[in-house]
Design the sequence.
């Protein structure tokens, strides 16, 4: 495993690691191996860490098939990814990027190429679902090694159960302090074709892999967790409660009869034979065939719901038939509803969405629940984290085509943002309500402007406008006055 598979983007000079006694932290949950003074290296692909990660991913996929869990996940994905036939689900925003118009145009063009390579316009829902459930989304970046300036040629999805990220650390001891100093650290991926990620692996250069994770780590910060992790326990509890409810309903719902058969002074053998004859005589086992629609008498099968036949000796009260009542409180499902709500809360989905008959009211924004506001913020965090896959691919594409350098990307990436198509009526209602309340407050303060408060104070405190927004609005008003779009008031202080 000494050789790398995949391409490497050549950099000017080598990035020297700053001396430290702790490795660089990241949000990828990478496995760490130490080297130094060795002529080889060994990676425990079959170790507990890798197996646990594979088991977790398979468990996430399993619980996602639970109907309630699937409904909650679909609510999340439908809010995060909105698409129609007229608009793309995502667009790149370069307003804050300090670069020439030529560079901005190139960035936007390459972003559209990446979206096309991913098939994001058509398969955005499926891609986001894979990332959300698995907690990670890896792609193999394929380029033309003979002509890398052509950029990314193809993106192939990798099953995360077969891919593992590893960090190799080279250490040395400081002679003065005796501390173990990290001399060099290198990250790479290991791909294995074996079952559940086991077996011999291929060492892949990190530049050849686009790897977006959920950013959620376990308490030890060694494993990547999915957003589904919190739903494992509620889902299992809900399954057990539903299974227990079905068993209870089947076994306790019907009424059953008890036959007390008087056998007199008959010997034991004769008494048992007499009891069997009575059972066969009174057994009424009608079976409904759902396939043919026929009703037939099937006495050869025994079930746990049949009547009880008990012998009674001479001196008793003779033959008697009594009825055992069916189970009570069969209509109570509060415990099932409790675990359903608990499952929705574990996935940060508003509980009121569980009740299908209760839709939201397109009325005043004050009627919007706090859960919906929290849900909107959760969706924004998901989008921000998911956008990392576009950032990685865009960086690789721009550097391959020579549009920017590594240093240029460090300056650009912080100002690049992404705009997702919105379909959240709650947020729209909330924004409109906020604007309405601000202007109602503004109307009540009109008489105090110029006496106790200033125009600038009103703009910044009541309307919440920044200095840049105030300047832009002034310019827009002046331009509209000159064009005649609005009637100007020369005495108006703007």
Sequence:
């Amino acid at each position: 495993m000494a050789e790398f598979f995949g391409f490497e983007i050549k950099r000017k000079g080598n990035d020297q690691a700053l001396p430290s006694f702790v490795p660089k932290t990241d949000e990828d949950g990478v496995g760490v191996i130490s080297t130094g003074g060795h002529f080889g290296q060994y990676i425990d692909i079959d170790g507990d860490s890798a197996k646990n990660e594979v088991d977790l991913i398979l468990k996430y996929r399993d619980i996602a098939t639970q109907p309630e869990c699937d409904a909650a996940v679909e609510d999340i994905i439908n809010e995060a990814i909105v698409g129609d036939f007229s608009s793309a689900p995502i667009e790149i925003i370069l307003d804050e990027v300090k670069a020439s118009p030529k560079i901005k145009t190139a960035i936007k063009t390459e972003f559209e190429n990446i979206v096309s390579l991913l098939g994001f316009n058509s398969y955005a829902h499926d891609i986001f679902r894979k990332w959300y459930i698995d907690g990670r989304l890896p792609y193999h970046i394929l380029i033309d090694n003979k002509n890398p300036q052509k950029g990314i040629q193809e993106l192939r999805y990798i099953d995360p159960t077969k891919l593992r990220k590893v960090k190799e650390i080279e250490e040395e001891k400081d002679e003065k302090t005796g501390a173990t100093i990290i001399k060099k650290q290198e990250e790479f991926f290991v791909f294995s074709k074996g079952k559940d990620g086991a077996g011999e692996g291929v060492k892949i250069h990190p530049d050849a892999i686009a790897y977006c994770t959920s950013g959620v780590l376990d308490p030890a910060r060694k494993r990547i967790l999915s957003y589904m992790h919190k739903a494992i326990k509620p889902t299992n509890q809900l399954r057990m409660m539903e299974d227990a409810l079905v068993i209870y309903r089947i076994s306790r719902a019907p009424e059953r009869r008890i036959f007390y058969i008087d056998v007199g002074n008959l010997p034991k053998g004769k008494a048992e034979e007499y009891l069997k004859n009575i059972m066969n005589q009174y057994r009424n086992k009608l079976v409904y065939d759902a396939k043919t629609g026929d009703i037939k008498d099937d006495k050869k099968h025994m079930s746990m719901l049949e009547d009880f036949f008990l012998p009674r000796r001479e001196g008793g009260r003779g033959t008697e038939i009594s009825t055992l009542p069916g189970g009570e409180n069969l209509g109570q499902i509060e415990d099932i509803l409790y675990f359903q709500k608990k499952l929705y809360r574990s996935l940060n989905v508003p509980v009121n969405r569980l009740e299908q008959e209760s839709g939201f009211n397109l009325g005043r924004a004050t009627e919007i629940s706090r859960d919906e506001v929290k849900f909107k913020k959760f969706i924004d965090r998901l989008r921000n984290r998911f956008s990392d896959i576009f950032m990685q691919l865009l960086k690789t594409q721009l550097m391959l085509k020579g549009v920017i350098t590594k240093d240029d990307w460090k300056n650009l990436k912080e100002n690049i943002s992404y705009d997702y198509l919105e379909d959240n009526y709650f947020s729209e209602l909330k924004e409109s309500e906020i604007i309405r309340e601000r202007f109602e407050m503004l109307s009540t303060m009109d008489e105090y402007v110029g006496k106790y408060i200033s125009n600038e104070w009103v703009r910044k405190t009541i309307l919440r406008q920044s200095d840049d927004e105030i300047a832009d609005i002034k310019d827009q008003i002046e331009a509209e006055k000159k064009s005649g779009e609005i009637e100007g008031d020369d005495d108006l202080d703007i």
